[in-house]
Design brief:
By secondary structure, this protein is α+β, with helices and mostly antiparallel strands. 55% of the residues lie in helices and 14% in strands.
Length: 295
């Protein structure tokens, strides 16, 4: 085996971890893959004899690429932050095996990714690296161009914002899939039957409904808040929606003719829905290999 093949093998061993790091930072599967590919290009041009810790080296490269992408995204953003929802990861996304799926999805639901998008780029990188991947601040500092103390302050500031949002039930979802399934099934049944009172009982009073741009163009409201208003949006609808697993949580899909057109992501806490995300962008939906749950 020549040096290039050996390097490619070592890189493949790190790919799942690198994709998870990039996904948490960017909230986009396509951009995460771009960041990982860029890390491989840089590795293929580097002198491997000078790399003592390949995993750490690659994580650093991916983090720097993600930071550049976040800064570029911020500088060119024309729409409000809330109009861009993170990409969901389904149970069969890109043929991921269970280990890969868990690494991508565990603890990183849509609600958490929405919160992370409110952070400044350097805050997000410092928080993700330290709090989610236990990277020391001494290694984070050169990535964000700060001292270790300043990097620690970035992560601390990000943590306070995330924890502040964490007081909102939307950021602390129920983990039990059977319980989620019960709530989603009941919600779909109440929606189809036009049972307004049943919908209200399943919704947290402060529930938030968000839709991506494609869903808004199709007639959905970009954001709706409060149980009565959200219940009104669904009462008598969702007749053909089916339960699916999206981003490690139970959601729903409308797929006429077997082709997914709309995905509904639910965040559930204490048996009530606190957040609903509607995804309808065709390009994003094509990235998702949705697994319909058994009856």
């Amino acid at each position: 085996m020549d040096e290039h093949d050996w390097l490619a093998e070592r890189f493949q061993e790190q790919r799942t971890h690198l994709r998870a790091v990039a996904y948490r930072m960017l909230g986009s599967l396509n951009e995460a893959d771009d960041a990982v590919q860029e890390a491989w290009l840089r590795l293929s041009r580097a002198d491997p004899s000078g790399i003592e810790n390949l995993g750490g080296w690659l994580t650093t490269v991916v983090a720097r690429v993600c930071l550049d992408m976040l800064r570029s995204r911020t500088s060119r953003r024309e729409q409000p932050l809330g109009t861009h929802l993170p990409d969901p990861v389904s149970s069969a996304q890109d043929g991921l095996d269970p280990e890969q799926e868990a690494l991508l999805a565990e603890g990183v639901g849509l609600a958490m990714l929405v919160v992370l998008q409110t952070l400044a780029p350097a805050e997000r990188v410092a928080f993700v690296l330290h709090d989610m991947f236990a990277v020391p601040f001494e290694e984070i500092a050169p990535i964000v161009g700060r001292s270790p103390t300043a990097a620690k302050m970035l992560a601390s500031r990000a943590r306070r914002r995330v924890q502040g949002q964490g007081q909102d039930p939307a950021t602390v979802p129920d983990a039990d899939l059977a319980r989620q399934r019960t709530v989603v099934d009941a919600f779909l049944a109440a929606s189809r039957g036009g049972d307004f009172d049943a919908l209200l009982a399943l919704l947290n009073p402060g529930v938030v409904l968000r839709a991506d741009r494609a869903a808004v163009d199709a007639g959905a409201s970009r954001e709706v808040r409060g149980a009565p208003a959200v219940a009104e949006q669904f009462s008598g609808r969702a007749r053909f929606a089916q339960p699916v697993l999206v981003n490690g949580a139970v959601g729903a899909v409308w797929a006429p003719g077997g082709r997914p057109r709309v995905v509904f992501g639910f965040t559930i806490r204490h048996g009530r829905i606190v957040e609903i995300d509607i995804l309808a962008d065709p390009e994003r939906l094509r990235q998702i290999d949705l697994a319909v749950l058994d009856d």
